Amino acid sequence: MLPVLIGTTVCLSTARAADIPVPTSPPVQQTAPQPSAAHPPKAEHIIVHRVSDSASGNQPGGGLIHLQDGVKSVSTVSQDFISKQAPMATAFQLASMLPGANVSSSDPMGFSPNTNITVRGLDNSAIGYVLEGMPLNDVAYYSGTPSQFADSENYQEIALAQGSADLDSPVLNAAGGLMNLTFRDPAKKAGGDASVSYGSYNTNREFIRLDTGDIAHTGIRGFVSYSHGATDNWRGPGRDEKQHVDFKFLKEWGQGNRASLLGSFNTTITSWYPEPTMDSWESDGIKGQNNLLAHYDSSNPENGANYWRLWRDGERTLYGGAPVHLTLTDRLSLDVTPYAQFAYGNWPGGSTMSTSGLYQGTQALSDTLNLPGAQDGVGVVRADYTQRSYRSGFTSALHYKTGWNDFVLGYWYDYGDDNEQQPFTAVQTNGYAPDIWAKNGKDVIRLSNGERLLGGSFHTISQTNALFVGDHMSLLHDHLAIDLGFKAVMMSRDGTNSLPGPQYHVASNSMEPLPRLGVRWRIDGENQLFFNATTNFRAPDQTALYNTYDPSSGEMYGTGSTDVRNEYSISEELGYRRTGRWIIGSLTLFNYNFTNRQISTQAVQNGSIVSTTMNAGGQTSRGVDVEIGLRPWHHFSPYVSGEYLHATIDNDLMSGGDLLRTRGKIAVRSPTLQAAAGLSYDDGHIFGVATVHYTGHQYATFMNDERVSDHTTGDLAIGYRFSDHIHLHQPTLRMNFINITNEHYLSGVASPTLNAKDTTGVYGTTIAGSAPSYYIGGGFAALFTASTGF
């Protein structure tokens, strides 16, 4: 903080941050002498020495680490690092270097929805995703699809809080932490940015962003961006295509008042990457049976169901929010964020179906279907699985500052309307099945009474009410900070299953008290200690409530539960931070205790791949995270991160009428060791980033009888920025090389199982094994990008 100067004229100038040493302690506060009539004040010129953490190429660790001052562990990726990566990189890929983050991808370019992220062994559905105050998680499954969130050019920052969400965050499932996404603010002057990219697998992408500047002297400014991208599948047949729009409009006035309107629209059609078992991976690798068929086989229905065009996934999403901050008085302020979402998708798969002996739910049908190319009473169909979701709500937080207290009182309300159905579409003899979106009622298979033939049909209304109260205390000249908080969450689900059968109405209600405590002790200007203890809960996916049926036999694929048990967790963090002249880093010890641990997995329902959860009982997870970044030295900025994790299952798990001996086994998707390192160079014109990431082996079953091997991958980016020329601002050329060693590997566990091999249970019965499935990591890819501001 600058000394207060009374009765003087102050002129500020800045020196180049890279050439200025960073002060290791705050300046001493001094009282300026009062001027007198005999000695009038003289103009003083004060040079403020500061380090800009936002200037391109001047950020610690190349933009992979940021100064932190809170009571919990947070790791940050800034625009300095983001701008050097492949432009279609998702938020998962951009955060993959951070401690605890393990990204399982299926393609190198980031188009495919076949992806997952685990943080400290907790998967995608255990993490909250928030864009400037509005939630992005799926209303039914809690998961996030990062390719839908935003274009990378529009991110200002991606912050990953590994241990817990903020008190006011509108998320229910964040035992695995919170990914907080921030858009850049619109520019104050009119202009824009544009880029084109081309690379491996016939990948092309075009992006343009227009900034309005100050609109008609109203103080409102905004940006709108559009991108289009497409790529061939890197293995097997198929092509992905995506169109995306981001926007943000902002108005600032008075003493910190701020209101914005922002959002994203995404529409995409992607093709499925088959997820192999270990046997098929060891026999075929990235070829053979681990890929879909390029041509339709009309002579064999089983082969015909594997035709790639039957496995294309169409999705459309729209997110919109309006965060507002109002300074009501010197002590009182209000934050309100209303939001709304719409999502529609079809996750289809090729399947076979009998032409007769059909069922609608458990009701036998007399209909005989006319399926083109049917053989021996069996034909090929596309098993569609559609989800239409509407979501809206708001968060509000009233802050009151007095003395060393900053009180907050808030309320969050969320309303979700989710409709999921599984119709079927007949496949022609050439492999064509109309309407990839399955929205046109005349194209799906209908019965003689005009109704659609369905494998599942349920409609769920969910409502969440949360009250929270907290106090941030700043003591001993802010050497000591204490955060106390309490959140009471009430969640209800009310749904109907419209298929004939024993189930029609379903309901679940939850109420959980969630206390928290955080402490930060600033030892001096460079060293801090922090401690954080939080509680979290999560209700199972809504599919756990419903029966699903096989229309060929009337048998149930899954049985809805009337005894839904919520996951509850208590987590603690104890950490040390250093913010020195050259080194910025942290070391965090963590501990989690879970009851009714919810594990996200996948199930095949009539040919469609659907998400579901399994109750893994109790779990204890302990470990340590570390990350270190250096401030730029001769334009070089190194960064390293790592994690040691010991996650164990606390009890034996039920399978059928017996128990599996899982107590003490290592939890699934929990690699013991992870490490990442990056080296950035940026002199303002020439720049480059080299990164390498190691992930240790991870188990795919609760019995630890099958696992993914460890793997190491590396990426490289190099480029050149030109000086401004006429109306072009910093024209830039860059090359990105992804998985530069072309490593062929299993990147993660798609569907864990209890046991892969037949196992004798506690009571002596033989429990049959079930093979887990895996993601195959994307191969080598190169991408050239030309971009410029204007």
TrEMBL record:
Any Pfam family: TonB_dep_Rec_b-barrel
UniProt domain TonB-dependent receptor-like beta-barrel: residue ranges: 292-740
Location within or outside the cell: Cell outer membrane
Main subcellular localisation: membrane
Keyword annotations from UniProtKB, A to Z: Cell outer membrane, Ion transport, Iron, Iron transport, Membrane, Receptor, Signal, TonB box, Transmembrane, Transmembrane beta strand, Transport
InterPro entries: Beta-barrel_TonB, Beta-barrel_TonB_sf, Plug_dom, Plug_dom_sf, TonB-dep_rcpt-like
Every TonB-dependent receptor plug domain range: 68-168
Gene3D superfamilies listed in its UniProt record: TonB-dependent receptor, beta-barrel domain, TonB-dependent receptor, plug domain
Region (Disordered): 20-39
Membrane topology recorded in Swiss-Prot or TrEMBL: Multi-pass membrane protein
PROSITE patterns named in the record: TONB_DEPENDENT_REC_3
Similarity comment: family membership: Belongs to the TonB-dependent receptor family.
Official protein name in the record: TonB-dependent receptor
